[in-house]
Specification:
Protein name: Transcription factor domain-containing protein
Keywords: DNA-binding, Nucleus, Transcription, Transcription regulation
Number of helices: 21
Helix content: 40-55%
Largest sheet: 2 strands, antiparallel
Number of strands: 4
GO molecular function: DNA-binding transcription factor activity, RNA polymerase II-specific; transcription cis-regulatory region binding
Strand order of the largest sheet: 1-2
Subcellular location: Nucleus
Structural class: mainly alpha
Organism: Bimuria novae-zelandiae CBS 107.79
Radius of gyration: 31 Å
Order of helices and strands: HHHHHHHHEHEHHHHHHHHHHEEHH
C-alpha cells in the first residue's frame, strides 16, 4: 500500500522564509518613515489627565457606589422620583443588577440623579455619565439610535439640577431630540422598523424594498410613545418659561400615542400623560396672545377662550380626582402664565372690562400655586424635577409682581382681602426656611456646589426685590394716572371678617374663610373653590362662563402702571435664567436686610422672627 506524505521542510528552507519576511517588514517601515504623512507619536498624557480618565469597569467596579446602594437608589427612584416624570417607567420587577447589565446607560443615568443625598458620589457619577454620553451617543454612529440612550438623556434632563447646575441642559436636550428625530418618534411607525430613512425620498430605492416597508402603519411601543411625549413636555416647558425656542413641537402622532397610553393604562400614570400634553399645548397657545396682531377686541376674545379652556380643565381635575403632582403644578403654572402674558406683557389690564377681575384672579391663582408647594412634606422637594423648580421660581416671581401691583391705591381696597390671604411676606419666610433646610449636602465643603444653596439665594433676592418695589409703590401714594371713581360694589367677592393678615403660622394651610356660594371640590382636588359668578351678558355672546370668582363691575378705576413697570429693576428678575442673580442689589452691607454678610444657611438659622 502506498501512502501520501507531505515533504518535510528543511531548516535551511525555514531560515530563508524568515529572512524574506523580515526584509518585507523593513521595506514597509522605510516607506512609512519616508512618507510626509507619517503619523507622529501621540503626546504623553499628563498625570492630571490620567487621573481624570475613568478606570476599567462601571461605577460599581470603581466602588463609587455598592450594588446594595444601587438597589436602594433604584427603588427610591421608582417610588419618589418617577411620579414626577412618568415618561420613563422602570417596571416594578426591574432590579439594579439586571438594569446594570442589560441597560448600563439607563442605569448610570438613574444612579446619577437618585444619589442626591451624597454630593461627592453624585459628582463622580455625573462625570462618568458625561464620558458615556461621549462614547455612546456622540461617537456612537448609527448605534446611538437606541431607546435606552434617549431614556437616559431624558432622566438626566428631568433632574438636571443635579448635573453641574444645568450647564449641559441645552446640549443634552438637543442630543435627545436628534435621537428622537432620527428614530422618527414624532410620526407614526411604518410597518416593520425602517432603518433606512432616506428610502422615503429616494424613488430609485423604493422598488427594491421588501414588503415589510409597505405603506401600512402601526403604533410605536409604549416606551417609545412615553419618551416622545416626554421630549415635547421638557422642550416646550423650558421654551415658554425661559423664553427659548421649542425645537420639538407636538405632532398628531405624539398626541395619539398619549391617548393610546391612557386607554391601555399599563401603568397608573399613563392616564395623565394626554392631559399633561394637552395642558402644555394650552400654555403654548397662551404665548401667542403676546404676539397677536389683531385688534384689542380680538385679543380679548382670545384671552377669554384660553380662560374657558383652563376652566374646563379645572373641572376635569375636580371630577377625575387625579393625584398627579405634575399635573396640578402644571395647571397652576398655566394660569399664572396666562396672567403674566395678558396682564404684564399684553397690558390687557388697561381695559376697564377685565382689569380688576384679572388682578383678583391672578392673586387667587398665585395663592393656589404656592399652597401646592407649601403642602408638600418637608424635604420631599428634593425629588422635584428641574422643570418643577423652574415652575416654582416662575410662580414665586408672579406672586410677588401681583402682590406689588395690587397695592396701588386705585385698587388696594378691592384687592386687600386676597392680598392678605396670599400673605406673600410669610410665603417668602417659609420658602427661605424650607429651601435653606435642604442646603448641606456638601458637608463642610464648598456650599456653592449644592444647587439648593443657589435656590435659597435666589429666593432671598426675589424677596429683597419685592420689598424694595413694595416700598417704592407705597411711597407713591395715589398715582396721578389713577381714576377717582367711586368705590366698587363687589357683587360676589368673598368677605374676610377683618382685613388683618392671617397668622404667620402656616396661614397657607388654613382653609379659606367667609366664602359663600362655593362648590365643594371632590376629595383630592387642591385647586381653589369655585364661586358662582353673576350673570354676565357678554359671556353669552362668546359662549363661555367666566373662570374667575368675580363678576364684571361698573365704574372701575383704570389701573395701568406705567411708572411702576418702567421703574429700574422691574423686569430684571423675569428676563434672566434661573441661576443668574447678578441683577439685584449688592448685599455686602447686609444680607436681605438682616445685617449679615452671608446667607444664614452658612452659620445656622437664627430666630425665625428675624427673617
Amino acid at each position: 500500500m502506498m501512502s501520501c506524505r507531505c515533504p518535510t521542510a528543511t531548516p535551511n528552507h525555514i531560515h530563508r522564509r524568515i529572512q524574506a519576511l523580515e526584509a518585507q517588514v523593513q521595506d514597509l517601515l522605510r516607506i512609512k518613515n519616508n512618507s510626509p504623512n507619517a503619523q507622529r507619536p501621540l503626546p504623553e498624557v499628563s498625570p492630571s489627565a490620567a487621573s481624570s480618565a475613568p478606570s476599567d469597569g462601571d461605577v460599581i467596579d470603581q466602588d463609587i457606589i455598592t450594588i446594595e446602594r444601587a438597589e436602594t437608589l433604584l427603588e427610591m427612584y421608582k417610588s419618589d422620583m418617577m411620579p414626577h416624570f412618568p415618561f420613563i417607567i422602570i417596571p416594578p420587577y426591574e432590579t439594579g443588577t439586571t438594569l446594570r447589565h442589560q441597560k448600563s446607560f439607563l442605569f448610570l443615568a438613574i444612579m446619577s440623579v437618585a444619589s442626591f443625598h451624597d454630593l461627592a458620589a453624585q459628582e463622580r457619577l455625573e462625570n462618568d455619565f458625561k464620558v458615556m454620553v461621549t462614547e455612546k451617543v456622540l461617537y456612537g454612529g448609527d448605534d446611538c439610535l437606541k431607546l435606552e440612550y434617549l431614556q437616559g438623556l431624558l432622566i438626566v434632563l428631568a433632574w438636571n439640577q443635579y448635573h453641574g447646575r444645568s450647564k449641559y441642559y441645552t446640549q443634552y436636550l438637543q442630543l435627545a431630540i436628534s435621537i428622537a428625530v432620527d428614530m422618527r418618534l414624532d410620526r407614526r411607525l411604518s410597518r416593520g422598523k425602517m432603518r433606512r430613512y432616506e428610502v422615503k425620498r429616494d424613488p430609485l430605492l423604493k422598488g427594491d424594498l421588501p414588503e415589510k416597508y409597505g405603506p401600512e402603519a402601526q403604533a410605536w411601543g409604549f416606551e417609545e410613545q412615553r419618551a416622545a411625549a416626554g421630549i415635547f413636555y421638557i422642550s416646550s416647558t423650558i421654551s415658554k418659561l425661559l423664553d427659548k425656542m421649542n425645537t420639538y413641537p407636538l405632532t398628531q402622532s405624539i398626541e395619539e400615542g398619549c391617548l393610546d397610553l391612557g386607554q391601555r393604562a399599563e401603568y397608573r400614570t399613563d392616564k395623565d400623560l394626554y392631559h399633561v400634553i394637552r395642558l402644555q399645548k394650552i400654555i403654548e397657545n397662551i404665548e401667542t396672545l403676546a404676539r397677536e396682531q389683531g385688534s384689542e377686541t380680538e385679543v380679548q376674545d382670545a384671552y377669554v377662550r384660553v380662560r374657558t379652556q383652563l376652566e374646563e380643565f379645572r373641572v376635569f381635575l375636580s371630577v377625575d380626582v387625579s393625584d398627579s403632582h405634575l399635573l396640578f403644578m402644571q395647571f397652576h403654572t398655566a394660569k399664572l402664565f396666562l396672567f403674566q402674558v395678558a396682564f404684564f406683557e399684553r397690558n390687557l389690564q388697561q381695559s376697564p372690562a377685565t382689569h380688576l377681575n384679572m388682578l383678583r384672579e391672578g392673586l387667587e391663582a398665585a395663592k393656589a400655586f404656592l399652597d401646592l408647594y407649601l403642602w408638600l412634606p418637608p424635604k420631599s422637594e428634593m425629588a422635584l424635577t428641574n422643570t418643577e423648580w423652574i415652575q416654582l421660581s416662575f410662580g414665586v416671581t408672579q406672586a410677588a409682581k401681583l402682590a406689588i401691583v395690587s397695592k396701588a391705591s386705585a385698587v388696594e381696597t378691592q384687592t386687600r382681602d386676597l392680598r392678605h390671604r396670599l400673605n406673600i411676606d410669610h410665603v417668602f419666610r417659609h420658602l427661605v426656611l424650607r429651601i435653606g433646610a435642604l442646603v448641606g449636602r456638601a458637608g463642610e465643603g464648598n456650599k456653592e456646589k449644592d444647587i439648593f444653596f443657589h435656590y435659597e439665594q435666589r429666593t432671598r433676592k426675589i424677596q429683597t426685590w419685592y420689598e424694595k418695589m413694595s416700598r417704592a409703590t407705597e411711597a407713591q401714594g395715589t398715582p396721578s394716572y389713577a381714576s377717582s371713581a367711586s368705590p366698587i360694589h363687589m357683587q360676589a367677592a368673598p368677605q374676610q371678617a377683618s382685613h388683618i393678615p392671617l397668622s404667620a403660622t402656616l396661614s397657607h394651610q388654613q382653609p379659606p374663610q367667609g366664602l359663600s356660594n362655593h362648590v365643594q371640590p371632590m376629595s383630592g382636588d387642591i385647586s381653589q373653590p369655585v364661586l358662582i359668578p353673576a350673570y354676565d351678558p357678554s359671556a353669552v355672546n362668546v359662549g363661555i362662563i367666566p373662570m374667575g370668582s368675580y363678576a364684571t363691575h361698573d365704574n372701575v378705576p383704570q389701573i395701568a402702571f406705567p411708572d411702576l413697570m418702567s421703574a429700574p429693576g422691574w423686569d430684571a428678575p423675569f428676563t434672566v435664567p434661573m441661576e443668574d442673580m447678578s441683577w439685584l442689589v449688592d448685599v455686602s452691607q447686609g444680607y436681605g436686610g438682616m445685617n449679615q454678610t452671608s446667607s444664614p444657611s452658612e452659620n445656622g438659622w437664627g430666630d425665625p422672627g428675624s427673617l
